[in-house]
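Subgroup meeting minutes
Present: P.N., E.W., G.H.
Scribe: E.W.

1. P.N. recapped why we're keeping a running log of single-chain structure predictions: easier to compare across weeks, and new members can see raw inputs and outputs side by side.
2. G.H. added today's entry (168 aa).
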Amino acid sequence: RSGTTWNVLANQVPFVPTQRRVRGEAVYSMDKWDGYAVQQRRVAAALASATVRNPVILTGDVHVSWVADLPRDLADPGTAPVATEFVGTSISSGGNGAPLPGWGRTMLENNPHMKFFNGERGYVRCTVTRERWTADYRVVPFVDRPGAPVETAGSFVVEAGKGGVQRG
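Output recorded in log:
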């Protein structure tokens, strides 16, 4: 019943379904909402309801960054998006990281609703207006010594009233 432009689900672990393959078999993480499928579907249905305007999910805790649309049908990533999830990395834990580690490529290949993946350290800067939500993924190439330059690895926009994220 919120009258706000944006409705935010702040979340500790990734919400949008993600899949990877190991020896040809689909593998889902039990340390994400994928491990709680009934509850994940219930929350996704609530976000898809007409009463929840412009849902955005903010998440961390995986030491990498990604952007993904939440599909209306969780079993079919090709269905229309009902929300966008912005997952932010850690600032310094886990070493230097890499722009696109091998398992990041696998995540993008197996999850067509995932629009971006980055394994570097950094943060997400969100700029929010009534018309749009912009997320800039700010990263550094190294954390093992001082002086790393801060760069934008990607910018993404969600427009109010429209489902799905676009590159900014």
